[in-house]
Amino acid sequence: MKLPSLRNAEVLAGHAGLDQYVSTVSVLEYAKTFAMANPLFLGNEIILTAFISIKDDVDAQCEAIRRLHAVGEAAIVLYYVGYYMENVDQNLVQVANELDFPLIVMPRNDYSLRYSDVITEVLMHIFRDQQNETRFATQLLRQISMMREQQRSISGILRLLSDRCQYTFLLVDEDGKECGFAPWPMSINEEFRNSVYDHIDESDDFPVTFLWKDCNYVICKNSFATKMKSRFTLFSIMAAGTTEDTKLVQAAEVLQSSYDIWDGDLRKRTQDDLVRMVLVEPSDEVYRLASSLNLDLQPLRIMWVICPSPAEKYTYSSADRVNIKYEIKKYLRANRKTGIVDTFDNSIVAFMNDDKYLEFDKDLSDSLTKYLQEQYPGMILIWCSGMDSIADAKRTYLLLEENFPTASSIYIHKTVLTQRELSFAGNCCNTLRGLTTMPEKYNLILKPLRGRDEDTAIDTLTTYLIDADRNIAATARYLHVHESTVKYRLNNIKRKLGYDIAEMPGVFSLYKALALKRLLHSQKQMKY
After folding, report:
1. Which CATH number covers residue 516?
2. Rounded to the nearest 10 degrees, how much is the dihedral formed by the CA atoms of 89, 91, 95, 97?
């Protein structure tokens, strides 16, 4: 905080955490939950952000603070308050204080500030410290101990070592099986990795020098044994002329100590671990683990995401999520479904094979949701199908995170949502972006319904098309009226509109107009 670039910044909250160790500085622009799950957040970083992607969403800002604290980040520095975020909400201050997480605000209403000023000064300060303090093993072990359990993995530890030493690390067990790989820089591709393997396989004496794209690299080898008598080999790859023996020895020491202290956590890799990996890690890492577990991911073309509705007031605990996870696993087994299930974020995510009859999968999701609603009211199941790759799964989950709150505001009675409804919700959100009233185009569509019974007509039509999927009985149930009343109202609506409300393409524009009207109503209620 004494650096020139931070001297005029204000520590708004989390003063008790100002003694946190800082390993680097990073920029976070996309602060939605999906991005925050990325394993690159390994802790002890100062995070620079303007919260542009969530500038009007205080709940998301608070969740971002919780997530950054959970992965052990050191502090957050907010830029451009007064330009993007109008102000720092008191709820954000309260969360930061509760977590002792430093919330630092750069001078307000100053658009001339640059991230690069803080980045340069902090990194220079860290670099000088590293030059003066060559013994880093103890500090890294302390940093590892602060990681969340699910992040305390060999991949995560190797990533820390790689960032600290600026080497590429490959760890294998005594059978030659890969345990983890951390490239430096991150842009290193699979072709380089394969070249490293080729030279390791062909060599008995180390260090080994090889040429890659006009650059000479060196592969060094260090072996160690854990207190459980397991043997590992650490291969370190760096540009020729940059080898420092003390770094290699300390890297092996960190790994050996990590296995001695957290052996159970580091070795625990099951099929369900693939759920998190599919959503946040590189595809080649996912396929590598799946292959080691003899699991074919190709048939798993359906993803279920079970999470509480944004309108649900009750907060489900981690124990609740674990219970739901095992209920789903049992349910899938009972229905002869191959699947992997795990908790992720505030949700439970399952991947499973699809049935040759779509109706069976739909009935399966409906019956599970009915059971969950009885045990855990407010739970919503998002059913995403037709996924042919890990990239599809990542895109679909991002779609969910972006549009789930909007979809929940439109489909207020549905307990099962699909990616088509999520996409439609995103379309509606884009149509209303920055608007507080209905666009004239959609006002004209609903204009024939104006009059003394306008509210009743709009309510009936919205329920019939959006909530009840054009089912008379369901519409009557939601409106608490007799089915004949629904039929009478719908006949009057058809007469006023002058076309059949069940026929395309007219029904699509009508459907969207009703959804926009409901979404605007929901947004107004939230403000009050």
Report:
1. 1.10.10.2840
2. 70
